[in-house]
Design brief:
This protein is α/β, with parallel strands linked by helices. Helices cover 49% and strands 16% of the residues.
Length: 680
């Protein structure tokens, strides 16, 4: 039906374009850069190093360091410390002794009471930087300090409100000379206002003042395990009024506010103490009443009540005594560790699938946080993990990005080759350019191409099986007859039948291949009635030879559908010839059509023997001939005609079927989507 000329032209187009376009496709394939894991590891590693080291040097995400450090502090076990007691100026004391500040004579009585109770050393966390209007009280307090002989007074370093100049606030001379030692109180506040560290030495112009905690441990003759010698004067800054600090340490708190034992100052003055409550202990006297004295946010109290300054001093003293002050890792080692940790994910990401890499990366981040939080508690060293953590969080996305980029390049290369192959075969370029597609679009395009390739593979296998069996058998029989010698009329008739069967098989298979290649973009608007009339005209001669009469029940007005004229004509011709072959002489074969609002159904009705249910169910399958009971009367059929009918109907968005009963003939129908009448 006109198939061979078009097939020859397509083959000619393919041969003509193979030399030029084939070379272009090969060049396109060579242009796709292969996935190089080693090079990608270097690229991702460089990005991770820049990110990690840049953050570590800049310190822009110190909040992460603070969160990790605080996590370790909050997770450590809490135990009541021994050897340190706070004598608290609390609300009970204020109610008992009056509003603050108390007369210095009262302070003197409190010092005497603590010393008489056997305290190993006493620290007054009270600033006595002003003489006041009570010389007698100052003298009484000085005498109490001398009688005890083991009391330390604080040095307060603060800045003036005008100009921000730092000044050292020492006790008034009469008290300073009577004290057994002086020491600096105060801690370093981070940018978030939380007290996490102290400077072992600090001063204005030069770091000359030790911590008051260190002074107290010296007075109590207790070991000092966390301090360092006073820095050399070479550390003095250029400006004589600048604050100079040395030997920064981070505090390891023993617990939240209230962990260090407390006794009320009023109870001490009244002598209402348990036996030995202060004997041999370092006693800190300071304010704990709300609104009195300084209260600080700390890692262990940032989510609850702030900690009184005197208790922060107690924690500093305990850390110095027990050697639990935490040293920050120096900058050089910190950068080296950060770099190694930043590159660690590249040990597993190139070797794992995406899900495994994701799980490993999550485990790595959790492990880093846990290790950084626990390191100060285990070793006394603090490593700021912000750079390593951000690199760990970024490693999987960066590696995934490089993998996706490689996949995109691969998809683009495959799509270029597939489109080039389509142009070489004469196919139209219907899909959008891959550069305008998203990543999901590229995946869908490749999946569609893979489906087409699988379909082509299946069709190739069918073709090989068809040629090796169905076409080979009649041709081999014809060759044998020709080799047998002279042919009589009966032999020539058999030979002609075998050759015709081989030709019909080949033509049917080529028709089927053409139908399988139909694409929706190739369908055009046409009048189905004209198609059916022409098919009836083509099958008329065969019907006349068999003594079968045609009746047409087709409407006069056009029936507009979207389709391929040649394929639909061949479909209708197959149905008519099938009806003629299975109808007795003088029978009537009817072809009709009836439109509906959304579809049109046409049918071919014969007066043949009909079909059983089992025959009807497998009738439209490939190579099915309808005889499931051993009857070979239909052996002349190729078994492709009705399969072609179903395939073409489905390619047009429709369906095909049969209605039949044994002895009642059969009605084969095809239903296709209908266009609006005005579109014709």
């Amino acid at each position: 039906m006109g198939f061979f000329p078009s097939f020859r032209k397509a083959a000619s187009r393919r041969r003509g374009s193979r030399s030029g376009r084939g070379e272009q496709a090969a060049a396109s394939a060579r242009a796709v850069r292969p996935w190089r894991p080693g090079l990608e590891m270097l690229r991702v590693g460089a990005l991770l190093l820049i990110l990690a080291i840049g953050l570590s040097l800049g310190g822009w995400l110190q909040r992460i360091d603070h969160l990790v450090f605080d996590l370790g502090q909050q997770l450590q076990p809490v135990a009541t410390p021994q050897g340190v007691v706070i004598v608290a100026i609390d609300q009970q004391s204020l109610e008992r002794l009056g509003a603050w500040p108390w007369p210095r004579a009262t302070d003197a009585r409190l010092v005497d009471a603590v010393c008489h109770a056997g305290a190993a050393a006493v620290g007054l966390d009270i600033a006595f930087t002003e003489a006041g209007a009570d010389p007698a009280g100052n003298a009484a307090l000085a005498q109490a300090l001398r009688r005890c002989g083991r009391v330390a007074l604080p040095v307060v370093i603060d800045s003036l409100r005008s100009g921000g100049q730092f000044v050292e606030g020492l006790p008034i001379p009469v008290l300073a000379s009577a004290a057994a030692g002086l020491g600096r109180v105060g801690v370093r506040l981070d940018a978030d206002g939380v007290a996490r560290s102290v400077d072992l030495w600090e001063g204005v112009g030069a770091p000359v003042w030790p911590l008051m905690a260190q002074t107290l441990l010296g007075l109590a003759h207790a070991p000092v395990r966390g301090s360092t010698p006073r820095p050399a004067m070479a550390a003095v800054p250029r400006h004589p009024y600048a604050l100079a600090a040395a030997d920064r340490r981070l505090l390891r708190f023993v617990g939240p506010s209230g962990t260090v034992p407390r006794l009320s100052a009023s109870a001490v003055l009244d002598g209402a103490l348990p036996p030995g409550a202060l004997r041999g202990k370092v006693v800190l006297i300071g304010a704990t009443a709300v609104g009195l004295g300084d209260f600080l946010a700390t890692p262990v109290t940032s989510q609850g009540a702030p900690m009184p300054g005197v208790e922060v001093l107690a924690n500093t003293l305990l850390a110095l005594r027990d050697g639990t002050l935490i040293r920050p890792v120096n900058a050089g080692w910190s950068l080296l560790i950060t770099a190694l940790l930043a590159l660690a994910p590249l040990l597993w990401l190139p070797r794992l699938m995406p899900l495994g890499g994701l799980l490993a990366s999550v485990a790595w981040v959790v492990g880093l946080v846990a290790a950084a939080a626990a390191l100060p508690l285990w070793s006394g060293w603090w490593f700021a993990p912000q750079g390593a953590l951000i690199a760990a969080l970024s490693a999987y996305p960066l590696w995934g990005w490089r993998r996706l980029e490689a996949a995109r390049r691969h998809f683009d290369g495959e799509l270029r080759q597939l489109r080039q192959a389509g142009r070489d075969s004469g196919a139209e370029e219907a899909a959008p350019a891959h550069r305008r597609l998203g990543f999901e679009g590229r995946i869908l395009e490749v999946q569609a191409a893979q489906r087409r390739l699988r379909d082509l593979q299946s069709r190739r296998d069918d073709a090989l099986a068809f040629i090796s069996h169905d076409v080979r058998a009649p041709l081999a029989g014809a060759v044998q007859q020709l080799q047998a010698g002279a042919l009589d009329d009966a032999a020539r008739h058999r030979l002609l039948g075998q050759l015709r069967r081989a030709l019909d098989l080949a033509q049917g298979f080529l028709n089927l291949s053409s139908a399988q290649s139909l694409e929706p973009s190739e369908l055009v608007e046409l009048d189905l009635g004209a198609v059916l009339h022409q098919a009836a005209d083509f099958a008329y001669d065969e019907a006349l030879a068999r003594g079968v009469r045609f009746e047409r029940a087709l409407p006069d007005e056009p029936i507009w559908v979207r389709g391929d004229f040649g394929a639909l004509e061949r479909l209708a011709t197959n149905l008519l010839r099938n009806a003629v072959q299975h109808s007795p002489t003088e029978a009537v074969v009817t072809i009709g059509a009836a439109p509906t609002p959304r579809a049109v159904r046409f049918w071919v009705r014969d007066q043949g023997p009909g079909l059983s249910q089992a025959q009807a169910e497998r009738l439209f399958q490939r190579f099915s001939r309808g005889n499931d009971d051993g009857d070979r009367s239909l052996s002349g059929s190729t078994g492709l005609g009705l399969y072609y009918v179903r395939l073409v109907a489905e390619k047009h968005g429709g369906s095909a079927g049969v209605q039949s009963s044994p002895g009642q003939g059969a009605t084969f129908w095809v239903e296709l989507p209908r266009l609006d009448s005005g579109q014709g």
